[in-house]
Amino acid sequence: MGKQLLKSRKFWAAIVGVLFSILSIVAPDFPISEEAASNSISVIMAYILGVALEDGLSKKESA
């Protein structure tokens, strides 16, 4: 299971989102607006949902 997790696109997208959120809290002087940070996290969430949908549909077709 561990190797599958490390190869997961959803996992790495979630890690990037979490790191981005932590960066905005830890370094409030980081040169990015709150709106841009929110938009970036929204894009990451949409990517994760899209990959999950793609994975789910590919498993359904192969069954």
Automatic annotation (TrEMBL):
Transmembrane domains' residue ranges: 12-30, 36-53
Superkingdom of source: Bacteria
Keywords of the record: Membrane, Transmembrane, Transmembrane helix
Name by which UniProt lists this protein: Holin
Organism: Flexilinea flocculi
